[in-house]
Design a protein that fits this description.
homodimer, mainly alpha, Arc Repressor Mutant, subunit A, Tetracycline Repressor, domain 2, 69% helix, DNA-binding
DNA sequence: CGGGAATTGGACCGATCAGTCCACTGCTGC
DNA sequence: GCAGCAGTGGACTGATCGGTCCAATTCCCG
């Protein structure tokens, strides 16, 4: 369930590569960064070409078209986003751990000055209506993220910390949405305040289902 | 604090108008719809021209450039978004009323099939990084929305329904973020489920601060 | 070392787009 | 009824962009 990033199965991978893999990787990395900063539409293939010191033919050697490159960028960003939250996301299983995750997300964004917001959210807002394939990839990416949160919540539930009546899937979805909305507003306001408010409110909503007291 | 939509003060309005106002309005309305469906970058001035049956010169007669048109669209969408929630947003002052607002937002999106998501959120994601002026307009727009929510929460607090320790501003910001995130995920998933999860979780977070019992 | 495939360079093309320009029309006030 | 300006039509332009093509080069492998 935590598999298949890369391009996927749009077309049988051109079979082989050598240093070409490095070039391809360089292209995807630069494209991801540019698209995060300027958006997909705001990033021309010439920009990518210039940023990587490659030629037009290389872009089209490794990717069928811009859409394919965007697909690869989505895959990379999904991995990137999850990796950044790695430690906190893997060790989720108590309200305190959820709070550490919250702090991590906030800290990362404070560090970047809230520029670009969430890479996934950014791509979603721009691509969902125009690229069905990208939409599917993003649904899968958000699904992975949500699943990580759900795993933690289920662990809490199994340990009896979370009430049996609570729905981990739904709570995870709510937390993810809070993060996305907070990130979008933080990006707009250029301040982490909305992100903190969003996550704190969602966390309070989760805390309602806590079994032991309600440490608030 | 609930003022100045329209273009703003980018340049002294060209003074007069007659039926021209109708044409201008027609242009803004069509541009708003197109940009909501296809995004700003995905909407060419030629698309707007075709949709309104106007000519290129009219577009540039009423707007200095595309950015100015976008500015007008933002103003219109702010008004539109608030108008759609009008009754529920004006009569906010109890948890039950907040729930009615939640239902309203969900219902509106169910009706549109979640296409386009939130007009403001959509514009924000696309413009924040590239157009400082648009960013300012969007901050103001979100501010109005947030303020409506805060007014309701403050009313609850004044009536003693909400604990004195609660921060209406922060809760309002969290609710707005929950709505934005839920809307974005709903748009991506083409389902209102994420929106419901996001708003329910945020509402639960608000309910924590309720004074009377905790009807949950 | 030789041959074929992977890789790379970069000119080129057609489409599209924001923005310009000028000529025409029709209303309005004097 | 006529002068003048808001409103309109639409051709045109320069730039940009995604995408194509072909030739040169480099690398791998027998």
């Amino acid at each position: 369930m935590i598999v298949m990033h890369t391009t996927g199965d749009r077309a049988a991978e051109p079979v082989l590569t050598a240093r070409g893999r490095a070039t391809r990787e360089r292209i995807v990395a630069a494209a991801a960064e540019l698209m995060h900063e300027r958006g997909v539409a705001g990033t021309s293939l010439d920009d990518v070409r210039a940023a990587t010191g490659t030629s037009k033919s290389q872009l089209y050697h490794y990717f069928a078209d811009k859409a394919a490159l965007v697909g690869a960028v989505i895959g990379r960003q999904v991995g990137q986003v999850l990796q950044v939250q790695q430690p906190e996301l893997d060790d989720l299983g108590s309200l305190a751990a959820l709070r550490r995750w919250r702090d991590r997300v906030v800290e990362v964004n404070r560090h970047t000055g809230c520029v670009g917001g969430c890479p996934l959210g950014r791509l979603a807002g721009e691509l969902v209506e125009s690229d069905p394939s990208a939409r599917a990839d993003l649904v899968a990416g958000f699904g992975e993220w949500r699943e990580h949160l759900a795993v933690g919540l289920r662990a809490m539930q199994a340990r009896g910390e979370l009430a049996g009546g609570a729905d981990p899937e739904e709570l995870a979805l709510g937390l993810l949405a809070a993060a996305q909305g907070g990130l979008l507003l933080a990006q707009t306001h250029r301040s982490v305040e909305p992100l903190e408010a969003a996550l704190d409110l969602a966390l309070a909503g989760v805390a309602v289902h806590l079994v032991v007291s309600g440490d608030r």
